[in-house]
Amino acid sequence: MSNHLAIATVTATLQRMLQNSIQGDVSGARVTTLRPDSIGTATPSSGVNLFLYHVPMNYLWGNSAEIQRRNRRGDGAIRSRTALDMHYMISCYGNEAELEPQRLLGSVIRTLTDFQKISRDTICDTLEDAHLEYLNRSTLTEQFAEVSFMPINLTIDELSKIWSVFFQTPYCLSMAYKATVVMIEGEAVGEKALPVRDRPPIGPSPLSGRPQIIEVTNADDRVLPIEAQSTIVIRGTALQGSETQIRIGAARINPTRLSEDEIFLDLSSLPPETLHAGIQSLKITYNPTGTHPDRAATIESNLAPFVLRPTILAVALVDGNPNGRGKRSGDIEVTTYLPIQPQQRVVISLNEWSVDRPMNYLFEIPARSVVTNRITIPFKGVKAGDYLVRLHVDGAESCLVTDQDPDSETYGWYIGPRLLIA
Are 311 and 228 in contact (CB under 8 A)? Predict the structure, then answer.
C-alpha cells in the first residue's frame, strides 16, 4: 500500500511524463505545479501548469470487499486505508499568435491517451530523480492498484465556476483530468484476538457436478485444521473410477485409499513445493470403468476448495532495540514448512502470553521477489514480553500449540510457538 507521500508522488510522476512530451513539441516549454493565479508571474513564457484542485474520496474502492476485508479489525487488517481520486486542472499558456497553448494542450492529450496508467517503472524513475529526494520514502510502487488517468468532461459553466471561485484569475486554455485510485495507508498497528479452540461440527456443503465432491476435511476430525502433515479425506459421490487421480494445481497425485464416496490423501507424502499455504483447490479425475484408457474421455469432478494452514517451524528475534516507553522495534525471522510465494499476502500476529491485560499486534510483511521458507518481518512499538506467534498467509492462519498435559498448570492453554521480546 501507499504511504502519505502517494499524492505528491503521483503529481511529480505526471509532471515528469508531461515534461518529457512537451519539450519536444514546443521549444522552451516547461511543466509547473503552481496555483493558476501564478501563471505569467512565476512561470516561464510558455508551458503547462499542473494543479491539483480537488481530492474526493473514491467510494467504489473504499466500499469494495477487497478494501473492507483488510480494514476490519481482526480480519487480516493491519492498518486503515483510504481510497482517493485526484482532480487536476491542466492549463496551457504561451504565444497565442503561434498557437502555443493549443499545441501544448494537444501534446498533453496525446501523452495521457498513450499513457493512461502510471507503470511501476515510471514511478521508480521519478523516485530516483535527484531533484525529488523528498519523495524517496514513497511506497506508491507497492500499491496493488495502478493509478490511471481519464479526462473530466466539464461544461462551460462548471469550468467558469472553477476558475472564478477557486482561482479568481483570468481563464487560460485548460482541461481537467482525474487520477484514480490512490490508496493511503495508516500506520496504526492492527489487532487480532486468539482463535476459538473448540468449534461445533459443521454440516457438509454440497456442490453440483458428477462425480461430485461434497467436502474436503481433516481425516481425523472435520473440525480440525488442515496442515501440510495432515491426512485429508475427500467426501462425495461417484469418486472411484479407472486410474483415479487427485489434481492439486498442476500436480497429479494417486490417493492413499479410495472408495465410491471417500478418498484419503496423506499430504505429508507430497513434496512441499506442490502445496502452498492459503486457499487450495482440488478435483478428482478418472476414466470410466470398463473403457480403454486410450479411447475414454477423462471424467472430472467439481473443483473443491480447502484451507491449508501454514506451519511455523522456528521463530527467532533477529534484532530488537528499545525505542522509548518500554517499546521495542526490530525484526522477527520465521521459518515455515511450506514455501511462501512472492505474490502472497503475509501477516504476523503477536499475542502477549499473559492474563494481565495482554497486548496483541499485527504486522504485514513487505513485498518480496523470491519464493522462500524463511521470511523476515519488521516490527515496531511492541511492548517487551513473551508472545504467541501466528502467521497468516492469504488469510490462512498457522495453528497454535495447546498444552495437553492434565497435570500442567497451563493445561488447555495455548503455549506455542512463542517469542520472547526483551
Answer: yes
Pair 149, 116: CB distance under 8 Å: yes
- For residue 1, give the nearest of 182, 138, 189, 185 by alpha carbon: 185
Q: How far is the first Cα of the chain from the last one, in angstroms, to the nearest whole number? A: 30
Q: What is the pTM of this model?
A: 0.55
- Show the CA angle centred on residue 302, arms to residues 297 and 305, nearest 5°: 140
Phi, psi of 138 (to 5 degrees): -65, 140
Enumerate the β-bridge partners of residue 376: 333
Describe the crossing of helices 6-22 and 120-127 by its angle, rounded to 10 degrees.
90
Q: Does residue 263 contact residue 257 with C-beta atoms inside 8 Å?
A: yes
Cα four-point dihedral sign 52, 367, 317, 315: positive
Q: State how far the Cα of 225 lies from the Cα of 217, in Å rounded to an integer.
A: 8
Q: Which residues contact 274 (CB under 8 A, 6 or more apart)?
A: 248, 249, 251, 253
* Cα–Cα distance for residue pair 390/418, rounded to 1 Å: 9
**Collapsed DSSP state (helix, strand, coil) of residue 243:** strand
Bond before 417 cis per omega within 30 degrees:
yes
Partners of 306 in the beta sheet? 280
pLDDT in tens, 45-93: 899 999 999 999 987 776 654 444 444 444 444 456 788 999 999 999 9
Contacts of residue 64, defined as CB under 8 A and 6 or more positions apart, other chains included, come to none
332 touches 419 (CB < 8 A)? yes
Residue 165: cis peptide before it, omega within 30 degrees of 0: no
